[in-house]
Design a protein that fits this description.
With 234 residues, this protein is of the alpha/beta class. Helix content is 24%, strand content 24%. Helix 6 (192-203) packs antiparallel against helix 7 (222-232). The protein is globular and about 45 Å long.
Length: 234
Amino acid sequence: MAKVPEQVASGVYRVDAGPYSNAISVLLIADEEGWALVDTGTPASPFRIQGALASLEVGPDELKRIYLTHHHPDHIGGLPAVLWWARQAEVVAAHLEAPIISGEHPPDIPPSKLGAFIARRQQLSAQKVDRVLHEGDTFAGFRVIATPGHTLGHTSLLRDRDGLLFTGDAFGRLPFSRRIRVGVGKYICADPLEAKRSAEKLLGEEFTTVVFSHGKTMREGAKERLAEIAARER
């Protein structure tokens, strides 16, 4: 039986797209235009995403749109397989990420030696982006917020009506770590200083529930907890 995803708000579900709970999370969103997916995980993630859809009694033909927060392979690696069974789905990304996802521009390279070493060995499969969004545009009821730093075109999503924030990798934790950090980890950020500015920018928004790409959902005191994390890394 497929694992039922975590309902984080009305019409929004967090799917475990990685090998263990909260390792890699993607979102499934239901709205008046049909179902939407935020990020696609790794090449091993699509069967988990399809299983989550099945548990919600949603077929592949009902998945209409896919939004990609940034171009790292643990966020776009599952895209080819998802599009194989949801062929009508529209691929959407922010304007600075779209050229990288489509293969027109090279991936961002972090300034740290370890981050650069990892980035240069990551294989990205170029995929067509059907629609480009900018800061302030909406996707499936969420407002796009530019949060550069982790990558130079990274975006987060906020549903203003109920204060649901999906940080992507603007905040998150490294594998096998319980500690949430700004930009997930300084060494993998394309611009660590910009990642800190983006963290502060998110703290200027109104939200009550926080979902990370990597890490457990925060509910009670979520904004205060993120503020503590940001202050710790100044």
